Amino acid sequence: MLRIVIDTDVMVAAFDSKRGASRQLLLDVLDEHVLLVLSTPLLLEYEAVLTRPKVLSMTALSLAETIEVLDELAAICVPVSFDFRWRPSGADPDDELVLETALNGNADAIATFNMRHMAAAAARFGIGAQRPAEILQRIRI
């Protein structure tokens, strides 16, 4: 089964849009068609971003609903601890946490919209950085 890490930008898009590849990818994770590789620091980043008042307003979800989804992700994910620290490895320091999670969790791919920075950094370690629609195509094959 494909092992993926979801960048925070994709997670926000999944919560924001009821249609689209990001939401479908999140649903595939929840339906266990793909394995979500997740570290505690990355889960905390998801929570910090998704529970901001501006983001909650944008997604039209309550705090409780958002936490419920995150709790479910935590329950079904492949948990990752950091055996190795890989900083700095990319052009954008905000990407380091996602990349470290992917490396330490032996992920096959990173779902991201930040191809400019993430693709080259991930490729150095043999991990593909792809947009959600591209990962969905891999799952469907």
Task: Characterise the protein shown here.
The longest helix has 14 residues, at 63-76. The model has no long low-confidence stretch (mean pLDDT 91). The chain has helices spanning 8-16, 21-30, 40-50, 53-59, 63-76, 96-104, 115-123, 132-140; strands at residues 3-6, 35-39, 78-80, 109-111, 128-130. Helix 1 (8-16) packs across helix 3 and helix 2 (21-30) crosses helix 8 (132-140). It has 141 residues and is α/β, with parallel strands linked by helices. It is globular, with a radius of gyration of 14 Å.
Short description:
The protein has helices spanning 8-16, 21-30, 40-50, 53-59, 63-76, 96-104, 115-123, 132-140, and strands spanning 3-6, 35-39, 78-80, 109-111, 128-130. The chain is an alpha/beta fold and 141 residues long.
Features:
alpha/beta; five-stranded parallel sheet
Terminal Cα span: 11 Å
Major β-sheet profile: 5 strands, parallel
Which geometry do the CA atoms define? globular
> Could you say which structural class the secondary elements and strand pairing correspond to?
alpha/beta
Strand content: 5-15%
The number of distinct helices, counting runs of at least 4 residues, comes to: 8
Which helices and strands appear, and what pairs or packs with what?
Layout: E1 3-6, H1 8-16, H2 21-30, E2 35-39, H3 40-50, H4 53-59, H5 63-76, E3 78-80, H6 96-104, E4 109-111, H7 115-123, E5 128-130, H8 132-140
Parallel strand pairs: 1-2, 1-4, 2-3, 4-5
Helix pairs in contact: 1-2, 1-3, 2-8, 3-5
